[in-house]
Design a protein that fits this description.
By secondary structure, the chain is mostly beta strands. Among the domains are: 84 residues, no CATH class; 73 residues, no CATH class. The chain is built from three helices and 18 strands. Strands 1, 2, 3, 4, 5, 6, 9 and 10 form an eight-stranded mixed sheet that branches. A four-stranded antiparallel sheet has the order 7-8-13-14. The chain has a three-stranded antiparallel sheet with strand order 11-17-16, with no helix packed on it.
Amino acid sequence: MTLRSIRLVFLLAPFLAGYIFEPLAECDNVSIVFRYQEKGAERQISEHIEQVHLLVYGQDKKSVQQHILNFDGQSGIYYSNGLNLTPGRYRLVAVGNAFENTVLDAPGNPESLRLTNPAYLAGGRVTSNDSLYLGQKEIEVSPYECLRDTVDMASIHLNLNILIKGLQRMNTKNGNSPVSISMNGLRPVFSPLKGAIDQQQTYYPGGTYYDTLGLFVNRFNIFSGSDSFVAL
């Protein structure tokens, strides 16, 4: 080995050592793969989930990290993300598609975390939930080792579609819809540990009225696990 080669090795050594001997301080040592299965078959995840809020909790149940991951435009049935975590046990909670109809309330620990519509917290009328998905996983990170694990996402919503025909002869002012919908007996809050909870509420879904066609079309989501009925 020439003198120049020896000098090059010594110059590179501090940079290499940072990743070889101190991976927890400098590098992502945890790789999380997100996967969605429907009826036992793996699906392309971006067709169902556009975005994920990833919450990481330590062994003391306190929040350690929070990340927002965008799946939109991703191809394939998997989506992976790297994390940097010190050795220990962790609980991962992944919430998919938490948009304008969802707020992650009290996310400081997994027992207090609640998913709900912001209108419910404000005392207003709830029209719909988002098309939510949930994944949870407990992992253990060992010193100086890399971990790769999978979080399986599952739907926690029911998608409802309402189509009403034959409204041409109903007289309305200014083309306003002759139909209003209320859906009773719905649980407005979802706990990752307990499922759909809180006192039953009434949802008031909107919709689109096509006066020239005499059609009323509505699509909205509710939490899985609610017993309900629709009033028109």
